[in-house]
Amino acid sequence: MTAVIRGIGVCVPPNIVTNDDISKTLDTSDLWIRERTGIERRYMVDGEISTMDLAIKAGLRAIESAQTNKIDMVIVATTSPERLCPAVAPEVADKLGLKGVAAYDITSACAGFVYGMATAKGFVESGIADTVLLIGAEAFTKFVNKDDRTTWPIFGDGAGAMVIGKGEPDELGAIGQFDLGADGSLSDALCTHAGGARQRVKDSLGQHAQSQAYYLSMNGRVVYENAVSQMTQSSLKAVRQNDLTIEELDWMIGHQANIRILQTVAYELDLPECKVASNIADHGNTLTASIPLLLNDYAHSNQLKPGQKLLITAFGAGFSWGSTVVTWPDLRTYPKEWN
Amino acid sequence: MFSLNELKTIIETRFKMDVSTTSGDTSLEDIGFDSLSQLDLAQAIHKQHGIKISDDDMESISTLDDVVNYVSGKLS
Predict the structure, then answer these.
(1) I need a labelling partner for A279 at 20 to 30 A (CA). Which of A148, A199, A312, B67 fits?
(2) Most A CBs within 10 Å: which of B15, B43, B46, as the mutation test of the A interface?
(3) Confidence class of residue A255 from pLDDT cuts 50, 70 and 90?
(4) Going edge to edge, which strands form the sheet with A251-254?
C-alpha cells in the first residue's frame, strides 16, 4: 500500500497586480522584474479575502476533484495564518463540513507543501488516516512591505489543495519516497524578525521594533545560492531513492520562487529546460500554494498527462527543502479563478 | 590552466550567448550579465572545474580575463 493523489483544487483571489502597477509606487520596472524573476503579474488579496477563504475554496475543489467526502484529516501548510493562535486547519475543516476530523497546520514556508505531502503520506501509509486533505494557502502579501522593492514584486497569493488517500505503488498518482532537509544556521537570510515570541512588540531592550521588522526581509544572494544548491542535491537524492534517472523525468515541478533558480537547477541536473514547468509569470511566489497551483495549471491545460513522472522540489525559509517523485494521475481539474 | 576559450564555451553553453568575438578585457556587465548571472557563472564553473568563487572574490571580478585568471590561479 502507498499514498496516492486522488484530487486537486486551487484558488486565486480576483485582484491581479501587474509589474507596471508595482512600478507606479516603487523604483523598479516591468523589465527589471521580468528579467530577474520571470514574474509578469500576480494575484493579490485585497479587501476581506484572507488565507482561510482561499484555503476553503481550494479544499472544496480538491474534494470535488477526488469525488469523495470521506476525508479524515485536514492539514494546512501556511506561512500567513489568520492568527498566531489557533491553527487555520480546524476552522477550514469546519467550513468544509468536515466535523470532528483531525486538523492542524504545518509551517515550513515555501517547502511547506512538500513537507505536507510527506506528512500526509506518512499518516496514510501508517494507517493513522485513510484520506488526507492537504492545503497550501497564503495571503502572504499581507506580510510583505509594499515599500520594499526587493520583496514586494516577488510575492503573490493563492491556495492549492490535494486529496491524498490509499493506493498501490504501481497506481497512477503514487507518491514516491522523499528527501527532506533543513539548515537553521541561515534562518536570518529569509525571515520576519518581529511579531513572534523573540521580538513580540518590543525588543529585549524595551524598544519598539522597526516597522520593517514585522515584514519579510531577504538576503537575495544567499537565498539564491542555497536554493540552487539544495534543490539540486535534494532532487538528485529523491530521484535516486525512487530508482529513477533524470532522463526518465517528464517534468520538474519546482517551487516557483524565481525562474532563474529553476533554470539553474535544471542546468545542474542536466535536465532539458523544456521539462521545467513554470507559471511564475502569472503568479509570482505563492509559497506553499505554488506547487499545487503549478500542477493544476499544467493538468488543466493538458500539459501534464496521466502516467508522466514528475520531480517535485521546493526550497524556502528556514532554510528548508524537500523533493519527491510522483506519477501523475488522471484527475478532474477545475479553473483556478475565484468565481 | 583555464583558458579564455574554455570560459567562452561555458558562457555559450550555460547562457546561450554568442561571445565568440568577445575579448578578454570585456566586462561581464557589457555582455549582459547581472548579479544573478554572475552567481550562475560561478555555479557553472564549480560544476565543471570544482572551483568555488567566494562572494568576496566575485565582487572583485569584472572582466572575462579576471575570471580566467582567478580560475587558473585556483587550478594551479
Answers:
(1) A148
(2) B43
(3) very high
(4) A175-182, A320-327, A309-316, A251-254
From A19, A226, A279, A285, the catalytic residue: A285
Higher pLDDT, residue B1 or B23 = B23
Query: Would the CB atoms of A267 and B34 count as touching at under 8 Å?
Result: no
Is residue B16 predicted with pLDDT exceeding 90?
Answer: no
CA proximity to A338, closest of A47, A39, A111, A5: A47
Work out the minimum CA distance from B19 to partner chain A, whole angstroms.
Answer: 19
- Whether residue A211 is predicted with pLDDT greater than 90 in this model: the reply is no
Who's near A143: CB < 8 A, 6+ residues apart?
Answer: A79, A80, A192, A214, A215, A216
The architecture that CATH gives domain A1-339 is: 3-Layer(aba) Sandwich (3.40)
The verdict on a CB contact (< 8 Å) between B35 and A267 is: no
CA gap A19, A159 in Å, rounded = 21
Give residues with Cβ within 8 angstroms of A193, minimum separation 6: A199, A209, A213, A214, A217
- B48 contact A CB<8A: no
pLDDT of residue A208: 66
Domains identified in chain B and CATH numbers? 4-75 (1.10.1200.10)
What residues form DSSP beta bridges with A134?
A: A75, A162
Tell me the shortest Cα–Cα distance from A264 to chain B, in angstroms: 7
The residues, ordered by sequence, that sit 6+ positions from A134 with a Cβ below 8 Å of its Cβ are A75, A77, A113, A116, A117, A119, A120, A161, A162, A163, A164
pLDDT higher than threshold 80 for residue A231? yes
Q: What is the DSSP letter of B60?
A: T
**How many helices (H) and strands (E) in chain A?**
9, 13
**Which residues make Cβ contacts (< 8 Å) with residue A47, sequence separation at least 6?**
none
Using CA coordinates, name the residue in chain A closest to B46.
Answer: A268
The pLDDT, as a whole number, for residue B35 is 84
Closest-approach residue (CA) in chain A for B48:
A268
Evaluate whether ipTM surpasses 0.90.
no
Chain B closest CA to A214's CA: distance in Å? Answer: 27
Going from N- to C-terminal start, the domains of chain A cover: 1-339
For A218-228, write each residue's pLDDT tens digit: 888 889 999 99
DSSP sequence for A146-191: TT-TTTTTTB--EEEEEEEEEE-TTSTTBEEEEEEEE-GGGGGGEE
Q: Is 80 exceeded by the pLDDT of residue A158?
A: yes
User: CB-CB: which of B14, B34, B39 is closest to A225?
Assistant: B39
